[in-house]
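Good day; I would like, with your permission, to put a structural problem before you. A protein sequence and the structure tokens that stand for its backbone fold form the material at issue. The record follows directly beneath this note:
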Amino acid sequence: MRELVFEVVQEADGGYCAECLTEAIFTQAGSWNELRRNVVEAVTAYYFDKPAPATIRLHLVRDEVLSVA
């Protein structure tokens, strides 16, 4: 079975949002460990009546602005 990839963004409040790049699956959490649990739960619910992917990849996207002057 294929792998699902989630793009994860850390919000300003410190929480995380995760969105699957290939399926309509989205979840959020206040901590990284909670996010990991929520992603597995969301994928399990989405694939409740069909075989789920064997692996899930969480890709953390970090946008940082640096001042040069």
Notes: Residues 29 and 35 are 5 Å apart (CA to CA).
